[in-house]
Automatic annotation (TrEMBL):
<feature type="active site" description="Schiff-base intermediate with substrate">
    <location>
        <position position="258"/>
    </location>
</feature>
<dbReference type="Pfam" id="PF00490">
    <property type="entry name" value="ALAD"/>
</dbReference>
<dbReference type="GO" id="GO:0005829">
    <property type="term" value="C:cytosol"/>
</dbReference>
<comment type="pathway">
    <text>Porphyrin-containing compound metabolism; protoporphyrin-IX biosynthesis; coproporphyrinogen-III from 5-aminolevulinate: step 1/4.</text>
</comment>
<keyword id="KW-0479">Metal-binding</keyword>
<feature type="binding site">
    <location>
        <position position="323"/>
    </location>
    <ligand>
        <name>5-aminolevulinate 2</name>
    </ligand>
</feature>
<dbReference type="GO" id="GO:0008270">
    <property type="term" value="F:zinc ion binding"/>
</dbReference>
<dbReference type="InterPro" id="IPR001731">
    <property type="entry name" value="ALAD"/>
</dbReference>
<comment type="subunit">
    <text>Homooctamer.</text>
</comment>
<feature type="binding site">
    <location>
        <position position="216"/>
    </location>
    <ligand>
        <name>5-aminolevulinate 1</name>
    </ligand>
</feature>
<comment type="function">
    <text>Catalyzes an early step in the biosynthesis of tetrapyrroles. Binds two molecules of 5-aminolevulinate per subunit, each at a distinct site, and catalyzes their condensation to form porphobilinogen.</text>
</comment>
<dbReference type="InterPro" id="IPR013785">
    <property type="entry name" value="Aldolase_TIM"/>
</dbReference>
<feature type="binding site">
    <location>
        <position position="227"/>
    </location>
    <ligand>
        <name>5-aminolevulinate 1</name>
    </ligand>
</feature>
<feature type="binding site">
    <location>
        <position position="243"/>
    </location>
    <ligand>
        <name>Mg(2+)</name>
    </ligand>
</feature>
<keyword id="KW-0350">Heme biosynthesis</keyword>
<dbReference type="InterPro" id="IPR030656">
    <property type="entry name" value="ALAD_AS"/>
</dbReference>
<keyword id="KW-0456">Lyase</keyword>
Amino acid sequence: MTTPTPGPVPHPGRVRLRRTRSTPAMRRLVAETRLHPAQLVLPLFVREGLTEPRPIASMPGVEQHTRDSLRKAAASAADAGLGGVMLFAVPTVRDAVGSQATDPDGILNLAIADVISEVGDALVVQADLCLDEFTDHGHCGVLTPSGAVDNDATLVRYAEMALAQASAGAHLVGLSGMMDGQTGVVRDALDAAGFDDTAVLAYAAKYASAFYGPFRDAVESALVGDRRTYQMDPANRREAAREVALDIAEGADVVMVKPAMSYLDVLADVAAVSTVPVAAYQVSGEYAMIMAAAAHGWIERERAILESVLSIRRAGADHVLTYFATELAGWLAEENR
Ligand code: PBG
C-alpha cells in the first residue's frame, strides 16, 4: 500500500485575519473597544453605627464602610480617576415606609454629604434611590394592607427621597425600584424644588435576578420572597426596549441594564435605540462568581475581570458599575504608562 500524496500546500487566499492579531501593538491599534477609568463607577456600602469597616462574607474584598472609611474609599476612587461612586446605606432602624430614607439625618443622606465634602465635583456622586434598604419588610416600596407593593404610594416616597438626596448634594439619583412612572415623578419633584441640575439615572431594564444574592448580605436585607411583581422577568428581551423608551420620555438622563453579564443581548438592544447614555451594572453575584472561581485557581482573576468589563462595554454600555472599579482603573493606568 502506498500513502496518498498530499495536494498542493493550502492557502487561505488574500484574507488572513491573523495579520491584525500578530503583535501587541497591532492588536492595540485595531481594538474596537477600550476601557477608561472615567467609564467605571464604584458602588459603595456604608453602615450606620459602625466603628470599623466590616467585611461582607459573600463579597470578599468589599466591605460595609464606616462614615469615615467611606470618605477614604471615595477619595481613592477620585484619585483613580473613576467616573463616579454609587452609594448604598444600611440603617440600624427600619420601618414599614422606610422613614430613614427621607430623614436628612438618615445614614444615606449623611453619607452623600460626607462624600460630596470629600470629593466635591471630582466624581459624579450617585445615590441609590430605593426603599428596600430602609423598610422592615425589605421590599422596594410601601405595601398595601394585603401586603402587595403599592406602586403609586411608593412614587410619593420616591419623590420625597429624591429631594432628600438632592438636598444632601447628590449629583445623580439612581432609581432602582422598578415602579411604573418613577422617573417622571422624580424628575418633576426635583424640578419643582429647583433641583434642575440633579440628574436621574433610570434602572430601566432591571431584572428579578439571582445574581443580587450577595447584595442582600451587603445591606442585611430583610426581604422574604422575591421582587418578581416589579422587576423584569429574565425571559423577556423586547420588554426592555419599552422600559427604556418610557424612561427616556419621562426625562431619564442615563438608562441602565442590570445585571450585565447574563443580559448582554438586552444591553446591545438598548444601546442600539437609546438616545441617552447607557450604563450597565456588573452586580454582586457576578463579582462573587469571579472572586470564587479565582480563589480556587479555576480562572485567572485579573484577565477574567478585564474581559468581563470589556465585554460589557463591547455589548454597548457607555459606562459600567462594578465593584472592581478602583482596582481595574489602577491596572489601566499601569497599562498606559
Ligand atoms: C435595590 C438594589 C439592588 C441592587 C442595587 N439596587 C437589590 C435588588 O434589587 O434586589 C443590587 C446590586 C447588586 O447585586 O450588586 N436597592
